[in-house]
From TrEMBL:
Domain Cation/H+ exchanger transmembrane: 13-383
Protein name per the record: Cation:proton antiporter
Principal cellular location given in the protein's record: membrane
Positions of transmembrane segments: 31-50, 91-111, 185-211, 231-257, 269-292, 304-324, 336-357, 363-385
């Protein structure tokens, strides 16, 4: 146990100390920690030997995504969104649905034996983009502001939008394998969605009001106050799950309402929640690299790898191109936005969520997700900085 803790702590210390130097090169945190997991895990040096079952992996991934969803929603710059609203709105309202349809169509071509609901599940799992993997792009001043904000808003919101779609599809798949009526499956979906949204909104209002009260009467202690935001994210997630709702919807709604209604009180407190989310994300990548990524070498099906590559290219780039048609963006900017749609944490969590579902082609879905995430970490990680610099030069 202590050896595992030492390895994980050493990785965090090294990366935290050298992050500035590493992020300025064609490498990012997820890629570095995935490679570290491969090297230190059972398939490598054997220094990391965690006794994790899929429930442990699911809990780690769920808590990480809850904090990331909360932080992304709370940090959403609504002023910038209003200023550049046409671009992210196009990506979310046109590009995302078209990506889901394109992903389903690609699954229909490559996995003809897969039931259509499972094709839709695969498309939904691989639709959301990862803000952490795209950080080298959205934080690079060489990239034009409208492109950066569009990618930032899209990656911050599309995973939250995909959650209810995934829940609906899981309810329909469950209905298809049981005697539960179709209407009841829809009701269960709406119940999860409604309970999650109401729980997140109620807790955000309660905690936000408590913060205002404590500030008004000078009741805060700064060291403890920094824990409020990550605690609120976990509280929203856990309460919604306990009440039969979606914890992800709760965390997302709590973050969105907190950032909108209590921005002045909470903005200084978001840094701690973001740091917690980043640390958990990197640990998730270590576990993914040590125990999940090695299985990619065993996936010899050409269809799996071709779908993964298609998902990162045509399945995303064509819908993005269509959604941005008629905008003031250049062709190179549209291609840039289409390419930088990395898949990461949300796809991992979504894949873990479907492990318990009785799926006919569950193994294919999991294999394709792993292959897509591994390819994305490598391809997007290596191309982020060169692509940003090239776009910056062309925009001058």
């Amino acid at each position: 146990m202590y050896q595992n803790l030492a390895v994980l702590a050493a990785l965090l210390v090294l990366y935290a100390s050298l992050a500035g130097a590493l992020e300025s090169r064609p490498i990012n945190g997820p890629l570095l920690f995935l490679l570290a997991g491969l090297a230190a895990g059972p398939s490598g040096l054997g220094l990391l030997n965690l006794s994790l079952d899929r429930n442990d992996l699911r809990l780690l991934a769920e808590l990480t995504l809850a904090i990331v969803l909360f932080s992304d929603a709370a940090k959403a710059d609504l002023a910038q969104l209003r200023h550049f609203r046409s671009l992210p709105l196009r990506l979310l309202t046109i590009g995302l649905p078209l990506t889901l349809v394109a992903g389903w169509f690609a699954a229909w071509l490559l996995f003809p034996q897969m039931p259509w609901l499972e094709m839709a599940l695969l498309a939904t799992i691989l639709a959301p983009t990862d803000a952490a993997l795209g950080k080298a792009v959205v934080s690079n001043p060489e990239v034009p502001a409208n492109v950066r904000e569009s990618l930032n808003v899209e990656s911050g919101l599309n995973d939250g939008i995909c959650v209810p779609v995934l829940l609906l599809l899981l309810a329909l798949v469950t209905e298809a394998h049981s005697t539960v009526p179709f209407a009841l499956a829809g009701y269960l979906f709406l119940e999860e969605l409604g309970v999650g949204a109401l729980t997140g909104a109620a807790l955000a209002l309660l905690v936000g009001g408590l913060l205002r009260l404590s500030q008004r009467h000078c009741l805060q202690i700064e060291a403890w106050q920094q824990l409020v935001m990550p605690a609120l994210a976990l509280l929203s997630f856990a309460c919604a799950q306990a009440l039969g709702g979606s914890g992800f919807i709760a965390a997302f709604c709590a973050g969105l309402l907190t950032g909108c209604r209590f921005k002045q009180e909470t903005q200084p407190l978001l840094a701690t929640g973001e740091s917690c989310g980043e640390a958990l994300s990197l640990l998730t990548w270590v576990v993914f690299g040590a125990y999940v990524a090695p299985k990619a070498a065993q996936m010899l099906s050409p269809a799996v790898w071709f779908y993964a590559l298609s998902s990162l290219s045509l399945v995303r780039m064509l819908p993005v191109w269509i959604s941005l048609s008629g905008s003031a963006l250049s062709a190179e900017s549209r291609l840039f936005i289409g390419w930088f749609g990395p898949r990461g944490l949300a796809s991992i969590v979504f894949a873990v969520l479907v492990l318990d579902a009785q799926l006919q082609e569950g193994a294919t879905i999991i294999a394709t997700t792993i292959a897509c995430v591994v390819l994305s970490v490598v391809l997007h990680g290596m191309s982020a900085l060169p692509g940003a610099r090239r776009l910056g030069r062309s925009a001058e």
